[in-house]
């Protein structure tokens, strides 16, 4: 490590997008020395530099790397390896990315030059923020998957702790499973809610009416799951073993939204283990399975 004191590690960012802005502000907020930033466009780098005292916007990634102990490469995933390969790294400095799907192999170019390398992925979304400072607030309390070599093996988990989060280690071979969990909890929840909102348009309402109806229900569901766990919090006909209601839903879906039939059937079938855990009997579960698989 360039600095012996972890409170004085100088941190830079290459890539000032949604995550880069949020992480830079969050780290500054917990006392880290965020001192340099560059991005593809100067205006994005300026955005961070204008909000963090002592932080300077640079034109190139190399300038950031030359001035910092630790560089976060927060470009889109597809650019990380190329950006890492474009930099002349110093032995002992740190390079880290925040991609969830891949581990530290994206930073082989930096490791080959003797840098400590890390992956620090926040299990959080930063989509659709009107104020990117909100991204910094969203980082507080989240789980970070950390993989690292050299001094970063201690330093990155300590950053997660300073952000009031928790660092976990995912074996590289299980990382796609970890990322699939993130996609189920985030992107596919979006797909599901889009389907729910779409049924409102088929009832003659505007999409915004659907969003207004669906969002509080979805929010309360997630809060209940966070408080009590899925077994206690999930409700609905499938986990009650109510095959008649499922059949009625499938019948109307086939008429008004046939593109959702497969999704609805699969979700009903996927709910059976949860229904069993909640105490629904085997006969009712069999009726449920038959209703889900019947021609609508
Ligand atoms: N967004 C999320 O919810 C989220 C959640 C967890 C992890 N992550 C991870 O965070 C990383 C960044 O994602 P993001 O969502 O923040 O992406 P983003 O909003 O698209 O921002 C990426 C930034 O990188 C800059 N950039 C692109 N190519 C570059 C290059 N060659 N050199 C320097 N800068 C370049 C972009 O340029 P401009 O200068 O033109 O703006 C942009 O500001 C990814 O690894 C992603 O997997 C994101």
Q: What would you say about this model in short?
A:
This protein is α/β, with parallel strands linked by helices. It has 16 helices and eight strands. It has helices spanning 18-29, 42-49, 61-67, 77-86, 108-112, 133-139, 152-162, 175-185, 187-202, 207-228, 230-233, 237-240, 243-256, 261-270, 272-277, 282-293, and strands spanning 10-14, 33-38, 56-57, 70-73, 94-97, 116-122, 143-148, 166-168.
Helical proportion, percent range? 40-55%
- How many DSSP-defined strands? 8
Strand order of the largest sheet: 3-2-1-4-5-6-7-8
Q: Indicate the multimeric state.
A: single chain
Overview of the molecule:
The chain is an alpha/beta fold and 296 residues long. It contains 16 helices and 8 strands. Strands 3-2-1-4-5-6-7-8 form an 8-stranded mixed sheet, sandwiched between helices. Helix 2 (42-49) links the parallel strand 2 and strand 3. It is elongated and about 65 Å long. The model has no long low-confidence stretch (mean pLDDT 95). The protein binds NADP nicotinamide-adenine-dinucleotide phosphate (NAP). NADP nicotinamide-adenine-dinucleotide phosphate binds at residues 14-20, 39-41, 44, 74-77, 79, 83, 97-100, 121-122, 124-127.
